[in-house]
Amino acid sequence: AKKKGKNRYLFYSDELEQRRIRNAWIEQHLYAAISNGEISVHYQPIVDLRTKEISGLEALARWKHPKSGFIPPSEFIQVAENNGLIIPIGSQVMETAAQDLKQLHEKGFQHLYISINLSLKQLKHSDFIKRIISLPEIYGLKPEHFQFEITETVALFEDSDLIRTIKKLKEQQFRIAIDDFGKGFSSIGYLKQITVDTIKIDKSYVFDLCKDKEIAKLTNAIIAMANFLQLKIIAEGVELSEHVNFLNKYQNVLGQGYYFSRPIPFDQITTYLQKHSK
Ligand code: C2E
Ligand code: CA
Ligand code: CA
Ligand code: CA
Domain EAL spans what residues (predicted)? Predict the structure, then answer.
């Protein structure tokens, strides 16, 4: 047992070392990636499960390195948050998304909103927030055409400046969604405090929905609570028709996942919308 423990430790430190090397590579190439236009935005539809209508699109950052190919956000977003590059990356994503949404509105999809991920670093950046507030006027859109997704963390709810910023955005009529709900720190009390309007149920719940009775019960409870607080619900990671059938029992639940579409580039989104609109 002792030997196994030692091997495990070695294996673990080896993994840490590889992660460190990988992060250094990412950090080294991320600067150039931003100025060379290697960062783009893909979109994933958010769908009304009952009517099958598309209500919004989540904007997701993509990095395609000329030699190494796609580097997933799970790898580079964390690095960008640590070294501050999340500000220029986040700006690019936000401006691109706003431009693309404007185009879609001009093509007749005027009900659509765009949903943009924000990290705490972005929320704390006062110029970034100012830019957000000016977006509707700049692009000729309404605040309700923008949703901002904020991942729930303890840090978020303990920081009164952050809570104030979120309130300010909410007062301007922007949509605010809590991302990855139920994954980490979840508190109903805090949810009320920051007056969000949507929760996104983490995909780990949806994955286990049909396999695990306890998870199904918990999901029931989350949806009941959200309804009671008059919050909208988006279920993430909807991959199977079983997921759709389970979630269809509820009113006002939106879904997002591979069942409907993977995140796809802008030109493909236009085609997708044309095909799936009545
Ligand atoms: P997230 O905000 O939870 O985004 C949803 C992730 O789930 C995306 O991964 C999406 O591709 C994936 N996904 C969607 N449907 C399914 C499904 O049915 N099954 C499975 N297994 N996965 C699904 P992605 O694009 O790799 O992004 C990972 C994370 O990176 C995001 O998680 C988000 O936290 C972060 N991120 C991405 N773009 C941005 C950005 O522009 N700014 C910030 N701050 N974070 C971003
Ligand atoms: Ca998200
Ligand atoms: Ca997130
Ligand atoms: Ca999420």
Answer: 23-277
